[in-house]
């Protein structure tokens, strides 16, 4: 029986390298891959018949740690190995907290990766030796990582437009209230989306409230 694997990796060069490492072993079958966590979860929902996931950490839209947390919650039977260039304490700690079963650095050799996959599916916790050492230290002395605060700088005008947007006003209504053209309102709104890294009015208002830019 083949071992069905899914990969989340946003770097196409590294993705190709991972696929080539796995291709050496005929019992490993890559079912699908995705370039970000959000896309990965959608593909997993469409095809959840997966034994193991190889998960990158730094990805757009949804990072690997957030994605693992969702996988652990919805598909607890699927094992996950983090495959990343990051070996800092916080990434390791948060990945394991989120439910990761193993943790390898991307320079892992094909035999090590293959054995790690088998060990993980057998109930083990496959890790690069340096990661295993760090993990033991983290377990002995759990750190308290502060949640990073986002620094978002909006202009006074952008905040005014956000406040009015939160009240459900249209571009036309906002333009009349602020004595500017609807086109200018639209331009400011585009800048707001870019600075907040959101895609629509609802997301913009939610993020602005969360970061105390405007009142909810």
Please tell me about this protein's structure.
By secondary structure, this protein is of the alpha/beta class. 51% of the residues lie in helices and 12% in strands. The chain has helices spanning 12-23, 37-46, 64-74, 89-98, 110-121, 129-140, 156-166, 171-178, 182-196, 201-210, and strands at residues 3-8, 28-34, 52-55, 79-84, 102-105. A five-stranded parallel β-sheet has the order 2-1-3-4-5, with helices on both faces. α2 packs parallel to α3 (64-74), α7 (156-166) packs across α10 and α8 (171-178) crosses α9 (182-196). The protein is elongated.
Can you tag this structure with a few keywords?
12% strand, alpha/beta, 216 residues, 5-stranded parallel sheet
Q: How is the secondary structure organized here?
A:
Elements: E1 3-8, H1 12-23, E2 28-34, H2 37-46, E3 52-55, H3 64-74, E4 79-84, H4 89-98, E5 102-105, H5 110-121, H6 129-140, H7 156-166, H8 171-178, H9 182-196, H10 201-210
